[in-house]
Amino acid sequence: MADAAVAELQQRIRDAAAAQRALRVRGGGTKDFYGRRSAGDVVDTRAVRGIVSYAPTELVLTARAGTPLAEVEAALDEARQMLPFEPPRFDGAATLGGAIAAGLSGPRRPYAGAARDFVLGVRMIDGTGEALAFGGRVMKNVAGFDVARLMTGSLGTLGVLTEVSLKCLPRPAVETTIVRECSADEAIRRVNEWGGQPLPLSATCWLDGRLWVRLSGAAPAVASARDALGGEEAVDAERFWSSVRDHTHPFFTTLHQQSMPLWRLSVRSTTPFRDLGRDQLIEWGGALRWLAEQEEGDAEQARAWAAAHGGHATLFRASDKSAGVFQPLPPALLALHQRLKAALDPAGIFNPGRMYAEL
Fold first, then answer.
1. Three-class DSSP labels, 29-51
2. What Å distances lie between residue 334 and 47, 337, 341, CA to CA?
3. Whose C-alpha in 10, 118, 300, 314 is 20 to 30 A from the C-alpha of 54?
4. For residues 165, 169, 171 and 175, what is the CA-based torsion angle, rounded to 10 degrees?
5. What predicted TM-score, i.e. pTM, was given to this entire model?
């Protein structure tokens, strides 16, 4: 069934390339808001689904791209394993291929790794309709140019993912979360100090004068760290971290309900807090700042501030994307992106303009 679905996708892509007709690659549609708007006929990948293989003792899972993320996580949970990068599930309809194509990672990212760090290999269909395989299903694998990781975060602009192999990790034996009252400046200072110590940190989040710190690992290590850091032990911590991961926390839902733009700033973790006149939620030990846009000119201000602190700013969610979604690329880097696009999608049919107008 899955092979037939892949063959059908291949033929559709060949037809679109011959007719120079744009295609909009889509899984569960949970991240339709992310990136620039792109036109084209929808290519639904959900027919290409199912777990191909899972070897808990090898910490490797391979599944087809249209497999619901919930199905993948349920299989891992039975073996007390997890996707360490905690991809956002949003409304629960997310697919594995969509999670990899978006390349988004959740609260555990700075302590476990990003999505691309766990991609071992992929199967995909390029812009000519040819089925290709890169990487493999083992952790020790060398396959030349790392197209598997290149596909992570490409938003479907380079090809259609049909299969993904991922490294998994065991679930921590114990997890607990402590909460303490403090300013944003103090929170940033503390989490960076703690990050340099042998502490079992697995997530941090500051919001509205409160710092949340998750500790994960062996029971003695977690207990020792909890005593050393102090603070109040959180009740229903799992729900809190899920709300941050999936953007169901009131910080995110209120902005969405009010149609207020949401910015995602990636900066050095030690970057001092700056009151930009908007609500902020700070994750990743200070390296990820979520901002609510409230005034005209915020795009330039946010991007200039992020660039000055070694990072970039993304207009994560907005009804008006005329300011552009991603940080503008320097000419040399843009040229490299264009060459990659031309190599894998010569007719330019996959999600045209989804990342940048020039792609």
1. CCCCCCCCCCCCEEEECCCCCCE
2. 34, 5, 10
3. 10
4. -120
5. 0.94
